[in-house]
Structures are given as C-alpha cells and as structure tokens.
From TrEMBL:
GO biological process, alphabetically ordered: protein insertion into membrane; protein transport
Organism annotation: Nesterenkonia jeotgali
Coiled-coil portions: none
Name of the protein this chain belongs to: Membrane protein insertase YidC
GO cellular component: plasma membrane
InterPro entries: YidC/ALB3/OXA1/COX18 (IPR001708), YidC/Oxa/ALB_C (IPR028055), YidC_ALB_C (IPR047196)
Length: 320
C-alpha cells in the first residue's frame, strides 16, 4: 500500500462502506446488481448522508457569514484607519484589532468555508477509489469495504453507454473520439458549474446586507462567483463520471438548502428579508426578526383593587 493509499484509507473505507450498503439495499429491492443506475443512486444517497451529517456545520457557517456581514462597517473603519500603512508594526496592530473584533462578536471567518473543507476528504476518497477500481489486484481482492464482485460491477457498470470511470479528456483525445462520454460529461459539468454560479449569485443578490455589499467581503464574494465555476470546469474534464455524479448532486443540495434558508431565515437588512416581510404582511403576520414590544408595567394593586372597601371617616364629636 502506497503513502497516499495509507492516508486515504480511512476515508475510502467509509465511502466504500456507504456505497456497498446502499448498493446492497437497492439490489435487494429489485435493481440489477450490475446496473450503472444502481451505482448512481448509491452515490446520490452517499451525498444525502454526508450533507445531513454536515447540517450542524452548515448552521455554524450561516451564523458566521451573517456575523461577518454585521461587522463589515467596523471592519471598513479599521481598514481605513490603517490605510497606506505597510510597516510590520501597523500590520500587526491591525491584525490584532481585527482578531479582537472577531472575538467580540463571536465570529470565525474560517467557519464560512468549513462545510466545503469537510467534504473534501470524501470527494478525494471517491476520486481515489475510482482510480483504483481498474487495478487487477483490486478486481480480485476487492477495495475498502467493496467486495471483488462489487468492484467489478462498479467498474463495468454504465449509464447511457458511459462507464462510471470514464473521463472527458481521455475520451475527447481518443481515436476515434468517445462522443457519448464527451456529451454526458459535458452536460454534467455544465450542470455543476450552473448550480454553483446560481448558488453564489443568489447569496450575493438577495442575502447580503447593504453594508456587506461594499468592501473586502463583497470583493471576496464576487471573486468566488467566477473563480469556483472555473475550478469546476478545469477539474470536471479530469473527473470520472462517478465523481461528477457526486459533485453535481452536492451542488444541487447546496443550492436547494441555501434557497430554503434565504427564503425562510434571511440575513437582517438584506433584500430577502424585505421580500419575506412583504409575504408575512400579506398574511397578517409580524415582520421577521421584529423585536417584541416591551410590556407596560402594570401599577401595583392597592387595597381598593384587591376588593377592600374603604371605611367612612369618623366625625369628631362636638364638645358641649
């Protein structure tokens, strides 16, 4: 076993175990053992399991993103304070004040990308596993939690005549060109890029406050709008079909999950919050995130309020 195989082994075993479990269940309910659609559905179910596990991290990500938006005016003031100061002392002081600001508002910028980072071992494990499927030793002994029969089934399975391990670039450079592989992988890459672009665009256009639409935070979001789809294009032409299925399904989940959050729990001060309040007003509901009105303090009950009757004052007797 090589160095990278040793590092990836816990993740590839976990991924292969989940795939084997779902493949066995789908086979038990009547799907063909060697069907590519059996493996495709198993990969989609793998995505569902991973994303459900990551929901707590997603909640922390949302809170951190909103915290970053709320403190943007203070961050911009801090940047203006140290504008043009390039000396090490000023840069260190700026970093310290920025960290203090994050600590004060309980914001961790790292949390904004944690769900994506948490998925990367699973993604690489699937990629690594697919690259090992065609090795003769794994065809005979199995790989991870997959038996030899499952490895052979996965490697030999097809959807629309395209194998789960087929890749765009080798198929495009083949003689003759494997147009079935090129067309299917191209459609999946386009879907992958489109969902990523729409998800980021939706976040920027509807779920960012006015303060967050300017400054460094906004520039970072704009960069992600175009850089991430480009990464998917460059990577997609080198990904096997099985990995494209995984990442496309992941992007659809992310897009739907974010749409639900933006619609039902938007960032304060964003366009999405205004739209939500219009919908709530049409149904006669109170505005979203409206602070409850303070209850007026009631006067303390007196004897008269408690039902006690006042006694008439006694008249003084006149002296004779």
């Amino acid at each position: 076993m090589g160095f990278f195989d040793t590092i990836m082994w816990p993740f590839t075993w976990a991924v292969s175990f989940i795939l084997s479990t779902f493949h066995g269940l789908l086979t038990a309910v009547g799907m063909d053992f060697n069907s590519g659609w059996n493996w495709v559905i198993s990969i989609v179910l793998l995505v569902l399991v991973i994303r459900i596990i990551l929901i707590p991290l997603f909640v922390k990500q949302i809170k951190s993103q909103r915290g970053m938006q709320i403190i943007q005016p203070e961050v911009q003031k801090l940047q203006a304070k140290y504008k043009g100061k390039k000396d090490p002392v000023s840069r260190q002081q700026m970093a310290q004040e920025q960290q203090a600001l994050f600590k004060k508002h309980n914001v961790n910028p790292f949390m904004t990308c944690l769900p994506l980072l948490a998925q990367m071992p699973i993604f690489f494990a699937l990629f690594w596993m697919l690259n090992r499927m065609r090795e003769e030793q794994n065809q005979l002994d199995g790989y991870g939690a997959l038996t030899a029969a499952e490895v052979q089934s996965f490697d030999g399975s097809e959807i629309f005549g395209v194998g789960m391990s087929d890749i765009f670039l080798p198929a495009f450079s083949a003689d003759p060109t494997r147009w079935d592989v090129v067309v299917l992988t191209s459609i999946m890459i386009v879907a992958m890029v489109a969902t990523q672009f729409f998800t980021q665009k939706q976040l920027m256009s509807k779920n960012m406050s006015e303060a967050a639409l300017t400054g460094q935070f906004a520039q970072t979001q704009k960069m992600m709008l175009y850089v991430l789809p480009l990464v998917f294009v460059v990577g997609g032409v080198n990904f096997p079909v099985g990995v494209l299925v995984y990442w496309t399904a992941t992007n659809f989940w992310t897009m739907g999950q974010q749409w639900w959050v933006i619609r039902n729990n938007p960032t304060p001060g964003s366009l999405a919050e205004k739209e939500l309040n219009l919908r709530r007003a049409a149904r006669g509901l109170a505005p979203f995130n409206e602070a409850p009105k303070p209850v007026a303090e009631q006067p303390k009950p007196t004897g008269k309020h408690l039902g006690q009757t006042s006694q008439p004052a006694k008249k003084k007797k006149r002296k004779k």
